Amino acid sequence: MTKIAIIGGDGTGPEVAAEAVKVLKKVEKKFDLKFEFTHLDFGGDRYLKTGATISDEEVEGLRRYDAILLGAIGHPEVKPGILEKGILLKIRFQLDQYINLRPIKLYENVETPLKDKGPEDIDYIVVRENTGGIYTGVGGISMKGTPNEVAVQSMVYSRFQVERAVRYAFEVAMKRHANSAWRGLSEDDLDKGYIGQVTLCGKTNVLTFVFDLWERTFYEVAKEFPKIKPAYSHVDATCMWMVKNPEWFDVIVTTNMFGDIITDLGAITQGGMGIASGGNINPTGVSMFEPIGGSAPKYTGKGVINPMACIGAAQMMMDSLGYSNAAEAIENAMKQVIKEMPSQAAGKMGGSTTEIGDRVVSLI
Ligand code: IPM
Ligand code: MN
To answer: Most buried one in 160, 196, 290, 338, CB count within 10 A?
Structure first.
């Protein structure tokens, strides 16, 4: 029995999560799996009623599940930061989901704002460190509200945090190219025995403390993976190359903050928030899968939101739980439905939220 917690959350979150659950129920039947779904009501509505985000005990309670599917967190009537920090980040940190895995993959027939780029050019994966950096950094405000006020929010990284994120990225590259080498490698690279590449995205020219730690750790860990070519790109240049030459990337590893920023850029190049999925991974614990876009409150209840990103999150969940047949079946069905959709934008999908979900289900 695989126990799956569903946190629909806020805005359109519950609507997209419902479609993902339909898809999971279909693969459950088809591949003779046994899932038990538990719906949990953490989110803005509960907060507005009770003042509670998620307690330490409730997060601990999530450890009894095999995986978590999250719709979205963020409510227009709640001050920004309360739910994000109080629920989403709290789960990520307390369950030690230290990797945020965000594939940037352009599927066939999806419109990208990148001129002359197609699915063969936009296919890489961002490994975002997910439990450290400026997100958890020490900080505070003093003399608040006076002309002398001072605010500090520090980027804090331990060697341990950096090393495990970097090692995970190299492992992802090894797995990605277990059967065939990455097409971005040159003849020369292939002669050297490389099968893939990991690019560290940093800022070694300015943030000379934190990225000194990242850079040294990166090249030390790289030695354990002689088949993977290590590369480096400053974060500002990375943004430029993601637009100009996305085919230069295979796996990117980066900090929590940079990863947050570059994956929104990446998402738009793959067709937008309607289609971008991610996983908060604890390789030895409970992972949580989510569409990377927000709760899109203005579309709530209208049946126009694209469920594909959440279905993609469910697909990543299956893969992570080791149900590779189910993951593959979902991805194949997604590809087909995506190909037939006129647009990935809300309201322009050529069908309602539930119709898109139904189509995916029918093709599995
Ligand atoms: C994301 C989101 C979150 C983040 C917010 C909602 C806390 O933007 O998952 O990318 O910054 O990590
Ligand atoms: Mn983000």
So the answer is: 290
Paired tokens of 352: 């309602």
pLDDT for 228 equals 98
Q: Which ligand is nearest to the CA of 102?
A: 1
Ligand 2 centre to CA of 261 (Å) is: 6
Ligand nearest to the CA of 128: 1
Residue 294, classified by CB atoms within 10 Å of its CB into exposed (0-12), middle (13-18) or buried (19+), is: middle
- Report angle CA 263, 265, 268 to the nearest 5 degrees: 105
Q: What pLDDT is attached to residue 96? A: 98
The predicted model scores a pTM of 0.97
Note the pLDDT of residue 103.
98
As a whole number of angstroms, the distance between CA 314 and CA 351 comes to: 21
Mean pLDDT by 10 residues, the chain (364 residues): 98 97 98 98 97 98 98 96 96 98 98 97 98 94 98 97 98 97 98 98 98 98 98 98 98 98 98 96 98 93 97 98 98 97 95 98 98
**Ligand 1 center–CA 149 separation, angstroms:** 27
* Ligand with minimal distance to 100 CA: 1
Residue among 88, 256, 257 to mutate when testing ligand 1 (max atoms within 8 A of CB): 88
Delineate the domains of the chain, giving CATH numbers in brackets. 1-103+276-364 (3.40.718.10), 112-270 (3.40.718.10)
Residue with CA nearest ligand 1 atom 7: 84
Q: Whose CA is nearest to atom 4 of ligand 1?
A: 260
Q: How far is the CA of 293 from the centre of ligand 2 (A)?
A: 7
The whole-number pLDDT of residue 138 equals 84
Q: Which atom of ligand 1 is nearest to the CA of 89?
A: 7
Please state at what angle helix 13-30 crosses helix 353-363, rounded to 10 degrees.
Answer: 10
CA of 223 to the centre of ligand 1 (A): 32
Ligand 1 neighbours, Cβ below 6 Å, are 84, 88-89, 260, 292
